[in-house]
Amino acid sequence: HVQNLTSLRTLFLNENPITCFVPEIFELFQSLQSPHVGSAKITKPLWQTFPCNFSSLNIKTISVYSHNFTSFDCEPFLAYPGLYSLRLSFGFWTTFLSLKNAIKLKTLYFTHMLITTLPNGTDIPSNNMLRTLYLNNNPFTTIPLGFFDKMTKLEVVKIYYNQLKTLHEYIGLPGNLLTTLSFAHSPYLTSLPTDYLQGKQKE
Predict the structure, then answer these.
(1) The CA-based dihedral angle spanning residues 16, 19, 22, 25, taken in that order and rounded to the nearest 10 degrees
(2) How far apart are CA 4 and CA 141, in angstroms?
(3) Sheet bearing 132-134, strands edge to edge
(4) What is the pTM of this model?
(5) pLDDT at position 137, please?
(6) Residue 78 in contact with residue 101, Cβ under 8 Å?
(7) How many Cα neighbours within 13 Å face the side chain of 147?
(8) How far is 9 from 142, CA to CA, in rounded Å?
């Protein structure tokens, strides 16, 4: 029996044959802030992995990696009022997740997936708080115009190990807060539009 864990803040459930969770299990962890699930055998939609009402808890970060999911409905997670970090890695997703309700999210890892295209960014709220974005190890070949337009608070962007072949002359990266930008290990990318990465318009 699991009991007397009311002070537990970080929970690792990695490298196990778990396929689902009993809803009541998380009710025992009233102080839980950071659940991590990796290399499990879960096949249900991701939000059903945590079937309790997390909005009543103080969840700050969720990490899910090495799983069998092929898609992800982000909205149930983004409803958690304290969530600021979402780390999703090593999966079989082929489409980027919706960020239309990602107002408070500050850190997003969406890495080691099978993403071949990125959205144009129209569903991203203009008042989002996103500061760190990792999109490395995805096979997309281009970044569409507008993808970064509303991510005005970005400080760190890492898109290394990709199949990028070209960058639009203006890809929308804000330059006033950006401190780290990585396109490393992009074997097909031969040049960068320097003026535009600095936020300058072409004359």
Answers:
(1) 30
(2) 50
(3) 10-14, 34-38, 61-65, 85-89, 107-111, 132-134, 156-158, 180-182
(4) 0.82
(5) 95
(6) yes
(7) 16
(8) 39
